[in-house]
Amino acid sequence: MSNKRDAVLGVLDATARPTYVPAGFFIHFDKSCHRGQAAIDKHLEFFHHTDMDFVKIQYENTFPRRDDIQTPTDWAKMPVYGMDFHEDQLGIIAGLVEATGKEALVLATIYTPFMCAGHTVGGPELDEHIRENPEAVNRGMDAITDSLIGFVKASIAAGVDGFMAPTQGRESHRATDATLFDTCIRPYDLALMEEMRDCEFNILHICDFHGGYDDLSPFVDYPGDVVNCSPEVHGGALNATEVSELFSRPYMGGVDRKGVIATGTESEIERMVETLVAQAPPRFILGADCTLPGDIDWTNIRKAIDVAHGVKG
């Protein structure tokens, strides 16, 4: 098998067919493995056990809850977190870059300003604040974006090859309409993602962890070398090729995170992966629509990846 780094980057080359189907899945590890050397060791254990094709670093350094932000105008109190706040996460990144060498791409996960604002006050509260006074909320979004841009720059300096960059905000259950999305969410997503543009490999992840979408089109011009999302949209499902064509880039995904990979037998997992790969576009990375359940049997993940690796280009 070729170098994992080359295999993943080869997906971006429209002039060549990949030598095999690369794959990557992610889970949140136990809280005892969120910090320091324990986090580095657990990421490496997962990477080697599953034989996935890149190292994706979980982001567990969520923004703390702030009880002093109760109304939209309170967002003026939102601080810009400095490098001391990001220190542990940056240490994990540096440790994994050093341990992995050039064997595989190392990608850091980062949450968007909108997601971090939700951690700060709670999702429903944030939605309400945006509807009530979006301009006031944007004072806090400015500060959060500055915090995250600092983290992106420091991560690049630490040696990451790119980012897993998720986005949310237009799920069908939200009352955040297009105008509010374009005012309080989209500009900050794009400002953050602009800092990543020169990286070697970025994944745009349209996160449906808190609900699905009626329409994926609000994100089609977001940057990212590969798009990762659920093909399920209300009113029907897109197949992997249709998602790839919609976003004009390779697609990563296809696997229902709570489906066969979590509960199936080895033979069921094998049939699932073979079917997905047979229907996928030539430039494709096998993955799930979002983070797999934390209690999943890692052997199931390894089985899915082994099957994908057995499919030659």
What would you say this structure looks like, in words?
The structure is a single chain. This protein has 313 residues and is of the alpha/beta class. The chain has one domain (4-309): TIM Barrel, CATH 3.20.20.210. The chain contains 12 helices and 9 strands. The strands form 2 sheets. A 7-stranded parallel sheet has the order 1-2-3-4-5-8-9. Strand 1 (54-57), helix 3 and strand 2 (105-109) form a beta-alpha-beta unit. Helix 6 (134-157) runs parallel beside helix 8 and helix 11 (266-279) crosses helix 12. The protein starts with a helix and ends with a helix. The relative contact order is 0.15. The mean pLDDT is 93.
